[in-house]
Amino acid sequence: MTFHMILHQPEIPQNTGSIGRLCVCTDTKLHLIHPLGFDTSDYYLRRAGLDYWEKLAPTHYDNWADFLTRNPAKRLWFTSTKGERLHTQATYEDGDGFVLGQETKGLPGEIIDAHREELIKIPMPGDFHRSLNQAQAAAVVLYEALRQTQGW
Question: Which residues share a beta bridge with 100?
């Protein structure tokens, strides 16, 4: 079984490339929900993914509704600073998916409102009023899930 990293309308190719590399290194499936803020042939995307990009083979979706239609049974966790539950307080299972929003806006309000029980947040106690980089957040939640399920 594997985990799923779902990027909702990512905007920065370097983040998506880094997350792609993370996915290949952890046998995680990458899902990209359009519209994207870049072309998948983008130099920076490919550069960040290096030789891993060809092994990645991400699945593309026209929009959020298309993703839900094609993946109805997946158990999803939504990363957001608006969540109450820390990412370490959730209990993960093989096959879970992690949904990350746009780098500049996060997840849309309607997705957050529809999934309040599945919201997770990464603690950020520093005096900085911005969130972690999207690729860093993806690694933090994925490795916690792997620790729980694989005993790492």
Answer: 7
Helix (H) or strand (E) holding 54: helix 53-56
Residues 6+ apart with CB under 8 A from 149: 92, 93, 94
CA torsion, ordered 31, 139, 76, 53, to nearest 10 deg: 10
Looking at 3.90.1150.10, 3.40.50.1000, 3.40.50.720, 3.40.1280.10, the CATH number of the domain 4-150 comes to 3.40.1280.10
Can you say how many angstroms the Cα of residue 141 is from the centroid of all Cα atoms in its chain?
9
Is the Cβ–Cβ distance between 73 and 80 less than 8 Å?
A: no
Pairing of strands 4-8, 29-33: parallel
For the record, the structure tokens of 63 come out as 């929009």
Contacts of 36 (CB under 8 A, 6+ apart): 9, 10, 11, 16
Give the chain's length. 152
In tens, the pLDDT along 54-91 reads 788 899 999 999 999 998 778 999 999 999 999 999 99
